[in-house]
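Researcher: Batch entry, complex prediction.
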Amino acid sequence: MKTTGEYQPVFTGPRRAQLDALLTRYPTKRAALLPALWLVQEAHGWVSDESMVEVAETLELTPAYVKGVVTFYTMYHQHPVGRHFIQVCTTTPCHLCGAEGVVEAFLKHTGCADLGATSPDGRFTVVEVECLGACGFATPVLVDEDFIEGVTAEQVPALLRRYP
Amino acid sequence: MAEQHDMVTLTIEGAPVSVPKGTTILEAAKRAGVLIPHYCYHPGLPVAGVCRMCLVQVDGVPKLQIACATPVTAGQVVRVFAPEATEARKGVLEFLLINHPLDCPICDQAGECELQDYVFQEGRARTRYTPTYPKRYNPVEDFGPDILYVANRCILCTRCVRFMEHAAEEPVLNVSERGDRAYIGVHPDHPLDHPWAGNVVDVCPVGSLISKDFLHKARAWELDKTGSICPGCSQGCNVALETRQNAVVRVRPRPNAAVNRYFMCDHGRLNYRWLNRGDRIEAPLVRRGAELVAADWDDALRQAAEVFAGVGGDVVVLASPGASTEALFLAREIAGAGFRGAFRVERVQEEHPLAGVPNLALRGERSPNVRGALVTGYTEGFADAVAALPKAGAVLVLDERLAGVAPAVLASTPVVYVGTVLPDGVRAAARVVLPIANVAEEDGTFVNRDGRVQRYFQAKSAPGMARPAWWVLGELRAALDRGEPLASAAEAFDLLAAATDAVGALTYDALGTRGAVLERATPAGAPR
Amino acid sequence: MGFPHKPHPKETVVLSQYFGDPEARSYTGWVKRGGYTALKTALGMPPAGVTDLVKESGLRGRGGAGFPTGMKWSFMPKEKTKPHYLCCNADESEPGTFKDREIMRWTPHALIEGCAIAMHAIQAEVGYIYIRGEFTEPIRIMQAALDEAYQEGALGPNALGSGKRLDLYVHRGAGAYICGEETALMNSIEGKRGNPRIRPPFPAQVGVFGMPTTVNNVETITAVVHIVNRGSAWYKSLALGNPKSTGTKLFSVCGHVARPGNYEVTAGFPLRDLIYDMAGLRPGRTLKAVQPGGSSVPIINREEAEACLLDYEGCVAVNTMLGSGGLIVYDDTADMVYQVMRLARFYAHESCAQCTQCREGTGWTVRILERILAGKGKMEDLALLEDLGEQMTGKTICVLSDSCAAPVVSAMKRFRPEFEAYITGARKPALALA
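Model: Structure tokens for the complex:
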């Protein structure tokens, strides 16, 4: 496996134990792939090509197979992202309720140049996402693992202050 | 009667057809002579059902069905060219082309492209995806030693992914991303360098996966294709030699369910340049003092016959296990009662199996006809035979290059060399040199490791005066008054069959293009 | 109940009774509210008895397809020769739908109890609750409830002292709408791309890990708890329209309404009451269009909506579908051209890339609509959209491409002048092309 020499393996210590516990839930090792990738993202903040190799070796898969899966699921970051990852729903029901304005407010107040870009201070990355499944609570926003309902453009600056 | 019960009769495009239960509509249609257009389906791979090209109408079923995954049922009425079905396939073709670069003039696949073929057959004359819409663009990617991926031409049929996953059992290809952003991906650290990787180029129905070796080398319609047997190892994969201007420019697998299914390894695929080499013996040569000089066939054959006529003691035949079974047999006939035949073969430790296909591997035994040599009475005691040369009456060398054999060993015994190229050691020692055709230039048979006798066919002409080995040895045999000259490889084979128990009742015609297994063939690997 | 609003008198509150009641979340809180009695009852019945009970109730799948639940269970092999699995579909991803989320947030033990009953009925020892990755809060709550249920012995090697092993796990998705399709969901649990599978084989024969599997939606499974407690006759009696549609249904009402939320009504309830009386339009606005079953179903106009009874048959009668019960309301301010473009964009983003019509057709549909919105459309684009819709319907492995086509084609039929206005220039462009 080719590494930059800086790669920190994920599946050692407590996370190895977490993965081992997960493996008992499924009849195949492959089935632990999605949970394993979540652990990788929790550890590194994103899923690099190197970590795909580690996951592949751990679960007896090939790195290419792992990459095919990683690129299917939009929540796995294929690139490093800001310290806080902000996902704003803009699908139809939220759009009807003004989600575009919320996105604009996030871009403006985070300093992110564009959707998907990270703010110059490395603090935020803002993306639009398709339906977050909380259409009655427009506009829902997912900041890291915090699901926040009913966000309006006006609330954005105060909300951001909670994420230094 | 049991067989009757397992057969299902249905109607495809108005014609009744009976097929075994469990057959898909697509395969049943092939038997009825109807090719249902398809992309993702490949008989050697698991069904994916994703291209949606093989949609057909089945009476009584409201939706169109994919022929590749729908099993036949008794009394089923299938309409391949019903307006709804052709309309649906027209739709698929239009969708497949909206992001396609339409670069047929520079695409290696043009002329053998299933996208081209079906669009010509049933696509729309003009797309409605006007130039005002952008096309997806992805750069060409280097997937491995011999394979380039032209993403823009890809139709995501996933045959390549399934080949690597299910046939090679090494999934180094994937589908990456989703929707119309999807492409075939690799992991950057793990190139497509599997020993059977080249098959992804064959299974690709379009010009997306292409061979670097063949890149821009020829247009498909310039190529002549001839059935042959891969000489790379003892597996005996059925192949097609593709020639242009009397040169082999590409080798591809030819389906044979009993041997290689639809596949061949890269070792066999890429090891063809020697078939075109220019330093061939182009005329019979006879010794005049220190020199070998060109002679005509009559003269050379007469001088060769003199070597073997009335010879006392052993006549040692040092043969290449790459020679045809017919040549091996005829060489034995020429040697007569004193025949002592031996061969040697390159063996490498590691085999490279195609894991998902039973009994298919690049074998460690790197010659095509070891079994043929054994059947015709040769042994692998090459060193012993060489050691016995000084006491022998004569030596016939059959395309064995004699590497490592000291010139002194050859000095005391008359040597007749029947071969394609002339090694230095032979140049000094041979009394007569008879030029023969190589495997691409003659008809003949090899016997693979499982005892399957398989024919190969002439794909190009031999250089100069070189002739097929069966002809040369047949003439020599006639010059020795041991029979009539031979008119064909078939005649040589019939002689061989008559004289060889193991070959028994097999006939050259009956071998056809798929071959037949020797009577009393022992399975490969069993003691011989 | 119209959570997050007060219950409306026209509601029939069954599944949503404890929405907003944090105490119902805990094991003891759930038991205090009558929880786990249904599981106890069911474990005392033969599996086929539970299946028959559900069959008699008339319960139909609440995830979108409306397939009779008891019948689905009865497809599982009676003779168990290999492991059986239950997959609970909590991938709620259909735009407009947010009911399963609330069931999991407020009554996690109801879902666990329902899963355990279903597992008993189909003779599964292992079940997975597949929750979409974005649902961070429901995932936390469900995991905590599962931990409690194990501690209390409701799950595990000897579930509620029955001697039966019932293991139930949360499996977190990672961002893919299509994983709500049952075969894609099974692939996702197996650690694969969430590609729908061709059928046959059907999940009851070859499901997750190649074993017999039943996939049921969260709302469906939760309803089973009440059916076991109160009987199939009671459930069956809840039908205002067609007797083939029974029970209560949660409708997630969203979009242009004053009080968006989950409203629970009896099957066959009039759509007009739900919109006008309960969720309410915004002041001064009039109803323009509705998608009663989530973003995948055909868009209907005001007249059709006012005539619509909310059950499977009632929706079909007005040319649409009940779907998942995600009710998207468009009032007179909605730009239907823009909204269907936005929907098409969703499907183009979510297409798994397998089938040609879907992979290429969804993206093409978006580009045509974008051009129209940019004022660069042509009249023949409308016929083209209709034809693409035809090509994208009924020809693929799953219905994602149908779902992209349905709103577009239905909106063009009902609101054609809006499309034409962009093309003729009567309406100013709504977006600029990149």
